[in-house]
Amino acid sequence: MTASNASAAEPRISNWNLPNAITVARIVLAPVFMWMLLADDGSDGALRWWAALLFVVAIASDGIDGHIARSRNLVTDLGKILDPIADKVLTGGALVALSILGELPWWVTIVVLVREIGITVHRFIVISDHVVAAAWMGKLKTLAQAVAISLALAPFWVLLGDWVLWVNGVFMTIAVLLTIASGIDYVVTAVRGSRADRQVKR
Predict the structure, then answer these.
(1) CA separation for the pair 37, 21 (Å, rounded)
(2) What is the extent of the structural domain holding 152?
(3) Domain for residue 105, yes or no?
(4) If we measure between CA atoms, which residue out of 107, 102, 78 comes closest to residue 13?
(5) For the chain, how many structural domains are there in total?
(6) Can you tell me the distance from the alpha carbon of 146 to that of 94, in angstroms, rounded to the nearest whole number?
(7) What InterPro entries does the record point to (predicted)?
(8) Is 44 helix (H, G, I), strand (E, B) or coil?
């Protein structure tokens, strides 16, 4: 059997699978928790706690859909594209909401959004050639953002005191630094890959 016949015999993985459905659900949940957070002007009431819980559940499901996709051989190009988009929608929505409430400087939100949107746009530009999966530093950045935003959303300062705000600031600073570092790493990797492709085509 030739290589072409072997590849043709391999079953094509459908984009309509459980991991992709979970990823789409994460995107849909973003405006829901944003509404819950902004509905009572960010007070420390029940809606604020529910918004924080919903964000944690949505962002934690990233590991669930990834595990299911890998363990059941359901990894698709669509999933590789939607997964980082879902992360960006969730984290971006949370940062915008926190800035609207005056709890996070707008420059932090802008820096993060510029990095995330820029890389997403680049992924779509090169999608005809190849799908760019998330690198290890990008995944570490996503984890740091998830932890920092979760702490910022949950009003733990009501229970533990204002010192919690300092802790939140430290975690958010780490997340921003990793966001910038991973963005630089992505650009460097993309440039090297582009140069390598040009050398191969010569």
Answers:
(1) 25
(2) 12-201
(3) yes
(4) 78
(5) 1
(6) 10
(7) CDP-alcohol_PTase-I, CDP-OH_P_trans, CDP-OH_PTrfase_TM_dom, CDP_ALCOHOL_P_TRANSF_CS, Phosphatidylglycerol_P_synth
(8) coil
Rounded-to-integer distance, Cα 61 and Cα 26, Å: 8
- Amino acid at site 144: A
- d(C-alpha 155, C-alpha 1), whole Å: 62
Domain membership flag for residue 117: yes
Give, in degrees to the nearest 5, the angle at Cα 71 between 65 and 76: 60
What are the structure tokens assigned to 162, written together?
């204002």
One-letter amino acid for residue 117 of the chain = I
Rounded CA separation 95/42 (Å) = 13
Number of residues that make up the chain: 202
Q: What is the pLDDT along the chain (202 residues), one digit of tens a residue?
A: 444 454 454 566 777 778 788 888 889 988 998 999 998 788 878 899 999 999 999 888 877 877 787 777 777 777 777 887 888 899 999 999 999 999 999 999 999 999 988 887 877 776 556 555 556 787 888 889 999 999 999 988 888 888 889 999 999 999 999 999 988 888 887 777 666 656 555 5
The domain that holds 93 is classified in CATH as 1.20.120.1760
The two three-digit tokens of residue 105, written as one number: 């400087």
Is residue 7 a part of any domain in this protein? no
Query: Residue for token digits 């600031």?
Result: 169
Amino acid at 201: K
Integer CA distances (angstroms), 201 to 104, 122, 192, 195, in order? 47, 21, 14, 10
User: How many C-beta atoms lie closer than 10 Å to residue 166's C-beta?
Assistant: 9
Between the two ends of the chain, the Cα-to-Cα distance in Å is: 32
